[in-house]
Amino acid sequence: MPKRGKKGQEETEQERRPPDLTLASFLTGSLASQSVQNSSKNSEASTSKTEPELGLLEEQTGTETLGFFVKRTKKGKLPISYENRAKGKKVTVIGNVSGDPSILLQELKKKIGAGGVVRGDCVEIQGDHQAVVESFLKSHRSCLK
């Protein structure tokens, strides 16, 4: 019975041993030339993308703006605050949102898994999620002014 690997560690194709690898073939070096040829074929296949495919990849990597901007405060901090509402409800408020704040709300609701609402130029998320919102906005630097 084969040994199990550690949890969370999966083998990729490159890490696995080729099926025809034996000590004799390893020592003679015949397999080494085959593996070099296979790796060169893989690199050629990955670099032979057409121009439209490359443009599509650039759009998916986040070089385009999402439709909203968050303006920093006068001191350069992110406008994220934490407020207590009626009946003991906690709310994280993101201020100074321009553009379409509903897009920001939609993205944050997906990321955090909590409800929220847009009020004017502010976005409110239910619960105390200051750290998550801050890391989200810092990861989307194109949305910060």
From TrEMBL:
- GO function term, MF aspect, one: translation initiation factor activity
Which residue ranges are recorded for the region named Disordered?
1-57
Query: Which superkingdom?
Result: Eukaryota
Q: Which residues form the SUI1 domain?
A: 78-141
Pfam families membership: SUI1
State the PROSITE patterns in the record. Answer: SUI1
Gene3D superfamilies per the UniProt record, alphabetical: SUI1-like domain
Annotated Basic and acidic residues bias:
7-19
**Under the cellular component aspect of Gene Ontology, which terms does the record hold?**
ribosome
Where is the sequence biased in composition, kind Polar residues?
25-49
* Record's protein name: SUI1 domain-containing protein
The top of its lineage is:
Eukaryota, Metazoa, Cnidaria, Anthozoa, Hexacorallia
